[in-house]
Amino acid sequence: METITNYSEDIKTIKRIMEESSRFLSLSGLSGIFAGILAFLGGFAVHFLRLRTQDISLLKYEVVAVAMIVLILALAGSFYFSIRKAKSKGQKIWTPVSRRLLLNLFIPLISGGFFILILYFENHWKLIVPAMLIFYGLSLVSAGKFTYSEVFYLGLAELITGFLAAIFQESFILFWVLGFGFLHIVYGLIMYRKYQG
Amino acid sequence: MKTDISGLNKLFENRVRLGVMSILIVNNSSDFNDLKESLGVTDGNLASHLKALEENKVIMVNKQFIGRKPNTSYSITESGSLLFRNHVNALENLINSR
Question: Looking at residues A38-62, what average pLDDT do you find?
Fold first, then answer.
C-alpha cells in the first residue's frame, strides 16, 4: 500500500511542477476589479470634460492624462495584488515563467504604446481608444499562454471590443468603459471566485 | 534502458529526476539555475541527476556563452519525452488499478 501512496505522491508532484513551471498562478482577481473601477472613473472624468466642449481635440492633454493615470494605477494595482497573493500562498513572484509572462505581455503592449503615440501626433483621435483595446487584447492573448486561461479569453473579448470601437468611433467613451471597465470587473469577479483570491 | 513489466522506468524513480523531467516536458529549455531554483535542490545534487539523465540520452545539454558568462541549458530529447510519458502513464495505471 505504501508504494501506491508514493506513486500518487509522484503524480501529484509531477503535475504541480509541470503547472508551476509553465504557468504563473499568482494573478489576483482583485487586480481586474480594481482596474475596472479605475477605468469607470476615468470614463466618467472624460465624459464630464466633454460636456464642456464637443471638440475633443481641445481636450487632448486632459484625455491623455486620464488614460495614463488609469494605466499606471491599474498596472501598479495588478503588481501589488499579485505580490500579495504570491506571498500569502508562499510562492515566488520572480520566476522563469513570470519573466516570460511579462516579456510576452509587454512586447505587444509597448508596440501599442508607440503606435498610439503616432496616432496622437498625427491627430487620429478617434482611433486611439480602438488601438488601445486592440493592442491590450493582443497583449493578453500572448501573455495568456503563461497564466490562467481566463486571461487569454479576456484578451479575445478586448480584441472584439476594440474592433467594434473602431467601427463606432463616435462612441469611444462607451467602448473604453465597456472594454477596460466592464470586462475587467466581470473577469476579476470570475477569477476571484474561481481561484479564491 | 530498464523498464519493468508495468512500464515504470527505474531512471525516473527519484524526486529530483521527476522534477527535472516535469519541467523540461513543458518548457523548450531551462538553464541550470532555473532548474535549481524551481526544484529547491543543491548544485551537486542537481548536477549528478542531470548527468544520469544526460547519459541515458533523455535530456540534451546545450552549453553557450551569454556575454562572457558560460550558460548551460537543458532540454528534453524525443526519446526522453516518450519514456517520461510512458512512465507517467504507468504510474497512473498503477494508481487506478487499485
Answer: 83
Cβ neighbours of residue B80 closer than 8 Å, sequence gap 6 or more: B21, B24, B53, B57, B58, B59
Q: Which of A8, A14, A92 lies closest to B22 in CB terms?
A: A14
pTM of the predicted structure, to 2 decimals: 0.81
B94 and A7 in contact by Cβ < 8 A? Answer: yes
Residue B18, sorted as left (phi over 0), alpha (psi -120 to 50) or beta, turns out to be alpha
Q: CB contacts < 8 Å between A and B, how many? A: 51
From 3.10.20.340, 3.20.20.450, 1.10.10.10, 1.10.10.60, which CATH number describes the B10-92 domain? 1.10.10.10
* pLDDT tens per residue across span A129-169: 999 999 999 999 999 999 999 999 999 999 999 999 999 99
Which parts of chain B have pLDDT scores under 50? none
Query: Is A13 close to B15, i.e. CB distance below 8 A?
Result: yes
For chain B, domain boundaries: 10-92
- Residue A9 scores a pLDDT above 90: no
pLDDT in tens, A76-106: 999 999 999 999 888 888 888 898 899 999 9
- Indicate the domain borders of chain A: 28-195
| Cross-chain CB nearest to A22 (options B21, B26, B95) | B26
Interchain proximity B23–A18, CB inside 8 Å: yes
